[in-house]
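Researcher: Let's try something more involved. This one mixes different molecule types, so please make sure each is placed in the same coordinate frame as the others.
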Amino acid sequence: DAMVIQNPRYQVTQFGKPVTLSCSQTLNHNVMYWYQQKSSQAPKLLFHYYDKDFNNEADTPDNFQSRRPNTSFCFLDIRSPGLGDAAMYLCATSRGPGAEQYFGPGTRLTVT
Amino acid sequence: GIQVEQSPPDLILQEGANSTLRCNFSDSVNNLQWFHQNPWGQLINLFYIPSGTKQNGRLSATTVATERYSLLYISSSQTTDSGVYFCAVDPPFTGGGNKLTFGTGTQLKVEL
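Model: All components are placed in one shared frame. Result:
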């Protein structure tokens, strides 16, 4: 019954060691998003895919990249995690512009 | 960019009490959503409400788009209502997908 699935739910990585977070959806939505949420802050959009078109936010660090190999899956790659990248990473989907967004349960990333 | 402010920032209620949360935004929007973030970090959709009034059980929401605010009403609060409530808005379409900007959040604690 799950609609937006994120794996793993908790991820621990070492400083500078690349890490990949995964998101999948069963809604067949056109748009997939990645948000970063640091402790006691609101979620902040990193980038999104509209079908295969990638849209990066202007202030998203180059250290963060994303891949969307098909409609159902989207990945967040952090090339060289720093201590400041420890956060909750939230994936969301929507049918298209102006439509409701649905969020996954999130992946909590710890950097040691 | 658009500014989204929520009030109050913190709220403590006795179980059974009613409350009103407010969201003010600085520009016109295509979309407004209310979310409840539970203690595990998941964002739960409450309302998709760019304008008008909606009700769902003990919760209701009203958005007055022309005056750039939205209200979330919680009646007969329960301990399970505790968590952070976010409103999020989508400014007029400027590219692929829609991009939510989250408000500052209201931290709600409901006590027995």
